[in-house]
């Protein structure tokens, strides 16, 4: 893992696979470090034929952090970071896979810098702009959790922070519920590696939003992965994306929630992604 200094910002980057191979850049969701793209997933996806790159957003992992509640960047800054990374690594273009907020970033990159994008995969996300009719809101069960008072966290207490990180993921799980052991292991890795978890859990969601882009302007091969059980962006969000992007293909997932595809669906997701990336 390397920490790159880009325009005065530090971004932690991990590269796996052969140098010079086609590049695949994984873009995590809001409040997520690269840890949620596990090494096992990256290695199976790359299969020795791609260089798979994952990175920590600002305010996550080992990347630059700002004070909790005071992000010193905007959504447009987050959306430009993938290009900064590719430029610094000397990579002309890459396949992009974006989850949730990362899917919005990927859409923005594909519209604003189409020559830098080989293909696009959008996971559990929503159109980043344009008119797509009225799309359904989050499920009432998920929305109800946002009305609950925020717990007071002692951010110096590692065990308490890990518990909190796991609890945050719980309402986003699919119908089978949270894979407690797996998510706890990921949360533990993230908490122990991060500069400031208080900033991780807050700042992306209060930063000034980036300028919208219309996915109908995307002209690169696109695969949309969306669960019928996503509680944040219900399935019509994925359908709207697939309709809007010329030639896009929609893969319907079952049994998972609003999450980076877990091992239970790798037997479906990884072959579909490999086919898309090598087409």
Automatic annotation (TrEMBL):
Chain intervals for the UniProt region annotation (Disordered): 59-79
Annotated keywords: Hydrolase
Molecular function GO terms recorded: hydrolase activity
Domain AB hydrolase-1, chain residue ranges per copy: 22-260
Record has Transit peptide as a keyword: no
Pfam families xrefs: Abhydrolase_1 (PF00561)
Gene3D superfamilies: alpha/beta hydrolase
TM helices/strands, residue ranges: none
Name of the protein: Alpha/beta hydrolase
